[in-house]
Amino acid sequence: MDLSLSGAALDYRDELRDWVAATLPVGWRDVPVGIGDDAAYVAMRRDWGTMLHEGGWLAPHWPAACGGRGLGVDAQLAFLDVLVAAGAPEPMNTNGMSIFAPALMAFGTDDQRARYLGPMLAHDDIWCQGFSEPGAGSDLGGLTTRAIPDGDGFVVSGQKVWTSYALFAQRCYLMVRVTGVPDGVTMVVLHMDRPGVTVRPLRNLTGSSEFCEVFLDDVTVDADDIVGEIGDGWRVATYALARERSTGLAQRALQLSRELELMNARLHAGGHDGAALVGAFVRSRAVDSTVRRVLATIAEGAEPGMLAPVAKVLWSEGHQAQLATLVEIAGPEVTAAGDGWADWLRALLFSRAETIYGGTSEIQRNLIAKSLGLPSDRG
Amino acid sequence: MTTPLDQLTDAQTELVALARRIAQEELRPRAAEWDRRAEFPEEQFQLLRKAGLTALTVPVEYGGRGLGTFEACLVLEELAAGCLASAMTIQMQVNGPPRVIARIGTDQQREEYLPRVADGSVCFSIAMTEPQAGSDGTALQTTLSPHGDGFLLNGEKCHITGALRSDAFLVFCRAPDTTGPDGIGAVLIDRDVEGMAPIETEEKMGGRAIAEGIMRFTDVPVRADQVVLMPRKGSRDGARFLVRQFNPERCGNAAMAVGLARAALEDAVAYVKERQQFGRAIVEFQGPQWKIADMATAIDGARLLLWRAARTDVEGFPGIRETAMAKLAANEAAVMVTSEALQLLGHKGYLTRYPMERYVRDAFGLGIGGGTTGILRNMVAGEVTGVRVSQRRS
Fold first, then answer.
1. I need a labelling partner for B311 at 20 to 30 A (CA). Which of A210, A238, B28, B176 fits?
2. pLDDT band for position A327 (50/70/90)?
3. Does domain A127-232 have CATH number 2.40.110.10?
4. Range of B53's domain?
5. From chain B, which residues contact A within 8 Å (Cβ)?
6. CB neighbour list of residue B252: distance below 8 Å, 6 or more residues apart
């Protein structure tokens, strides 16, 4: 497995590094995920996405016909490395670009790719994911949002939950169950401005509301917004979820090492002994290496398989442990959120979501167990 | 099953039943509201006061019930299982400065304060931590200087739990021209005295209803009869006492951690039995079962260590080694159990609509206040090896 960058990716990386150094506003550097006022945070990430798009830097590994540069996946790794090293935020559409877009390229129509990928890259359309439901979280196959055939399209009713940034989204890739079709699970594109779509923010542990409930009450979905075949949605979703576990969370995972450097510097500045961070350092190197192996595997045209859930578990649980260690060292300075520690406190609280979203740690372990050939617990 | 290790007397059983009833019927339904408002839960405190819980450890001759650390722990676990903030209102009275006054205060100090602690008409906080003296408690700089017949107090204190509501404070200070463990003492200060700046507060992650205060003293006059422990240059008695007097509070902290963890476990157990995924309740899966087993084991282990510590109570102060072990185990159990319980509840655990996220926020603070888990490890290691290494740079 070759973890090094190709010549084209190296050139791309060097140019991007110079561009980011000259372009990224100082106030946007090292803003932890999920920080602060949601609208302002979303605006920052959206503007950053637009700037990257206008500079021609987004999705370098996408085909040129889809708006990319036609480079290898190693260029995407270079993209992530540059952003992480600069402390840059994730572009707002990371979710759509890294999870849904690959599925659209694999299962969608030319017309759908032409309509959606450009505005997604330009950040004219923000995308959210309509998978989880109150009764279908880890058991996604238990979804009950119904799509009743109506002419060439559907009328959709149901409820989605844990829908990140739905309040700010124009489009949603939505899993529904089409009535009258065996199994019937189907992936569709939902236009969030259609009548019958109601979004309610859910206040969470951090005090912010990035996760939302989405209520669908007789919402129309057009026939040309069905992605793949009717009843084949599970295959589309599985493909998308595999991308979420592998590339979708890569920037956050690679960010772990940088956060640790910042944490160490912050502790030293406060006169604290950072020796207890050694364990966190070891974990962060393991996360970094595993994420790079995942991307290298994809670059070779293979599926990462067990490596993707391994990376998710290592990163999400490692991040929680890293931040818990910070609290042990700096104590009340962190929990009282004083003297510049507020961002760290919020990161600590937000990290509790990281072992839940994108598939809980328990589900990741099931996937690992399945890859190892262990018997299923599902009976 | 009850064993000799966890046997209670009839009176203790009755006390637990009383605290549990109040906690579940009166405290728990309103816990989220106090947390959201970040206000002292006055109504709850009044309820607990009327139930006689502020009088638990006050000696009988001063109007109290004369009970010890063990009974205080039994009550605090129950209260914290309903509402941590409400439990904290009692913790400072039953395990805080009044214990010090009862043990080493003058008769005049006992008569002045203890009956009022017992009837709940005076609330105490302890003013120990300073900006540069947290885990390194003997680095405190607040100074008590002779002045006429009395003294002047100068300095700054922070992270004073419940400061906004308290009527009186036990303030740790030092004699002039002393450093480190040399020359430490303590005085009693009423709120709003001359020279004391208005108390400021800090927002915090958990225990939000019980504000953390910042107090600044500028030439605050202190009478000789307000001195509980005279700071004397050349004496380390104050520093030794400072370490010991924390033990009841540490036991109380551990009890609240156990109670908080228990509440999280009970909520999680109810949820995994109710939540259906893959066609069955998720309690039927091995993964959640193992989590539940680890959580329950951590709670029971911490409680047994705590009860051992509380039963070493000699003259009002439990043993250092036993107390440090108990608080360490309980604090780590609380963080682990609440975190795993949140994980079991999935996104419901993460939302403010449900209490689990509050349990998680509250748990972290318990592992910091009254001695961080790191400092506790140092203490346990010192007790086990007999080698007590100063963490201070020489």
1. B28
2. confident
3. yes
4. 4-122
5. 129, 134-135, 159, 202-206, 212, 276-278, 280, 282, 285-288, 335, 339, 342-343, 346-347, 349-353, 357, 360-361, 364-365, 367-369, 372-374
6. B69, B72, B73, B76, B91, B94, B95
